Structures are given as structure tokens and as C-alpha cells.
Amino acid sequence: MNSEKEEILLHDYFDNLLSQDEQKEFEEYLLDNIDLAIELGKLKNLQRNINNLSSNFSPPDSVIENIINSLLENNEQNSEIINLDIDANQIDNEEELESKIEEAKKEKKKKGKKIRVKKPISAKTKFRLKKVLHLFLFLIFITAIGYGYILYKAENKTTPWQVKISSNNEGQQTSQIGLNSIFTTKDNEQVEIQISDIAKIELSEKSKIEIIEGTKSYTSIKLYNGNCTFIPEYNNQLFQLKLKNIIISSKNSKFSVKEFNNSVKVKVETNYISLNLEDADYRVPKDYEFTILGQNKISIPVSNNSSKQFRRLIESYNITENEIVLKKIIKRSTITDAFTLHYILSYVTPEYRELIINKLQKLVPLPPSTNNEDILMLLQEPLNAWWDEIYFSAYK
User: Long-range pairs for 288-297 at CB < 8 Å and ≥24 separation?
Assistant: First the structure.
């Protein structure tokens, strides 16, 4: 978490208010302060976005004309406007204009109506009104940008996390943890960490985590060992858990990571989580689970609702990768196992890939925007589109 002095230096540097020596000293300081460097990057990114906006803010002339006409309208009751269809620039003298107005007045008086005269607006007056409206609308535009920046800062303000520790021996204790801190639980402790008003993390069984990022729009931890459950609340945005070389991302999905028989098992309880492993992205939906294998590999995800026979086949294939077992997996799969088949697609030869596609087509047809050839080539966008179609069919 940056100190107040660091924040002042950061903004002075960003606004070019430091001397050359101070700038050089601050840049050297950034090399050892990654959080401050990230904050500077965010400010520069915001500046780039603002600079990319149109510098000449000019609303259409039709908008200006409509506003001017609305301002000049008079809705007095029991009166009638005489609109003189005269171009003021074409009138040679004031007497001619007054003469036409008098003629109109006499005509209306004969009918017994109150009248008022709307004289033509000169080009000079229209020009001034347009200038004023241009300035007014430009100020509204700048105010909106400033308000957006304030919201951006509020969303990305680092906030301490509240820790509640329940121990069999010492009762309940509360404390706070912040960025770059490492937190470890004891054997007999149950810990609940509240992340502002967006989510909470439950830890048990001698767990160890490190807080990497902690803003309202993005929170991130590294799990070294132990049991961890992430529980999002209604306004959570992005949470990431780094486990070995695997990154698990959740927006509003509850999931748990637990050590079991010398292995680490991940269960998805709501919505879906995203995985990044070996530079590839994959999504695992609710009711599915998998095991962490090594530094950057997982077992084939399988549904908690799959049959015992199907789950045993998956366990066997995880170990042996036997083709006979794979054929049985394809044959016995149902809509409950569709995501398992979808995952296996990327790890088998084209021959078996085609068998899986044919079986999946019977369970959930391809969306209109995709075709078999795209799936056989493992193009990411068609694969994602089919995944979405399966998700809708399985959980509608």
C-alpha cells in the first residue's frame, strides 16, 4: 500500500512538476516499488484514453438550432406569434421592417386577438448563442470525464482486508492484512477474510496465502498450501487465485481448493471459473471438479452428477490415456458429461476428436456460427461458442 508521500510524488511526477534530478530519483525508486509503478501505468493509460477522445467537441448544428429555438419559444396563453418570413439581411432600412410589422398588427387587431411580434434573429445573435451553447456543452463533456476519473480512482483504491480468526483455544480475534503481506493459519484455526464488501475467503488446515492485489475491481492472492474457499458477494468484479503455475479466475463464482490425500482438488459450486494453464484458457462450470497435477496441468474435469462408472473411466484415462478407455468414455457420456468431452477435444488425435464431435453434436448441436472443420482445427472462438451453447443447454 502506497504512503501519502509516495502518492504525492507520483502525481507530481505524472504532472511534470518535479525537477530533472527529482524525476530521475523517482524513476529509480519505481524500479523497486512495483505497486507504485502499476499505479503510474494506470494513470498513463487513463491519459491515453482521454487523449484519444475527439479534441474538437462540436455538436451537430441541428442540435444547436433546436436548443436555440426551444429557448426562444414563448408559450403565453391567449396570444399569437406573428412570424414574419423576412431575411433581416435583405431589408434595406428599419422603416420597411416597421411598416410590415404595423400591417400585420392591424390585420390581427381586426380579429380581436392579442398579438406579439417575433422579429427575425440576426446572424450575429445566432452566432453568439451558438458559441455560448458550444461552451456549455463542452463543460458538461469535461465534467463527465472528470466524474469518470473519480469513479475509476474509487474503484481501484486499495483497501485493507478484515480478518476474523476462530480458534478452539483463543476464541475469536480480528485484525487486518494488506498488499504484499503473507498470512498463515494454524492447525486449529478457521479464518474468514472479508474483502471490502465484494467477497470473502475462508481458510483452514494450516493454509498460507499472499495478498497480491486488493482493489474493488480486482483482487488476487497466491495460495501456497492449505484449504481455501472463495465466496463472492453481489458486486464482486474479478478475483484471481494463483496456485503453482495455474491461474484461477472468478467474477461471481464460488469455488474451493482443498488438499486431499496428497493432492489438491478444485470444486466449482456456482456459475463457472476460468483457468489459465500452459498459456491456454479454459472454463470449468459449476458442479464440476478436477485435481491439480504438477505445476501447470490438471486432471480432466468431471461432473459431480456423472455416474460412478463414468467417473471411474475418467480416473483410469487420466492415468493411462488408453484408447479403449477413451472409446468407452465417448460411448457412455450423456449431457451431464458434455463439458468433460469438450475439454478432452483439445488433447486427443484428430481421429478421436471427430468421434467426440459427433457424440457432442447428438447431445448439443453446434451453434449456427460454427462448423465441424473449425472445431477439428481447435479454433478458440468456435470452441467458446459451442461451450456457451452447452452451458445454456445443461443449466437452462
Answer: 288/339, 288/340, 289/265, 290/265, 290/266, 291/263, 291/264, 291/265, 291/266, 292/243, 292/244, 292/246, 292/263, 292/264, 292/265, 292/266, 294/244, 295/244, 295/245, 295/246, 296/244, 296/245, 296/246
Helix (H, G, I), strand (E, B), or coil: what is residue 190? strand
Cα radius of gyration rounded to whole Å, the chain: 34
Residue 80 has a pLDDT of: 43
Dist. CA 9–CA 189, nearest whole Å: 41
Q: Please check whether residue 394 lies inside any domain of the structure.
A: yes
Phi-psi category of residue 354: left, alpha or beta, with phi > 0 → left and psi -120 to 50 → alpha: alpha
The number of folded domains in the chain is 4
Question: Given the C-alpha cell 507530481, which residue does it identify?
Answer: 12
Burial of 14 from C-beta contacts in 10 A (0-12 / 13-18 / 19+): middle
Q: How many residues does the chain have?
A: 396
Residue 330 has pLDDT above 80, yes or no: yes
**Rounded Cα distance, 335 and 392, in Å:** 12
Is residue 204 a contact partner of residue 189, using CB atoms and an 8 Å limit? yes
Give the largest CA-CA distance in the chain. Answer: 106
Q: CA 37, 39, 40 angle in degrees (round to 5)?
A: 65
**pLDDT at residue 78 above 50?**
no
pLDDT of residue 246: 93
What is the spatial distance between Cα 306 and Cα 334, in angstroms, rounded to a whole number?
Answer: 8
Quick check: helix, strand or coil at residue 289?
Answer: strand
Nearest to 118 by CA among 78, 69, 77: 69
Whole-Å CA distances, 233 to 184, 190, 194, 221: 24, 20, 10, 17
CA dihedral 332, 337, 342, 348 (to 10 degrees): -40
Q: What percent of the chain has pLDDT above 70?
A: 71
258 vs 97: CA distance, rounded Å:
90
Instruction: Identify whether 382 is part of a domain.
Output: yes
198 and 275 share one domain: yes
Where in the sequence is the domain holding 68, given as residue range(s)?
Answer: 61-154
User: Which residues, including other chains, have CB under 8 Å from residue 196's CB and lie 6 or more apart?
Assistant: 159, 161, 216
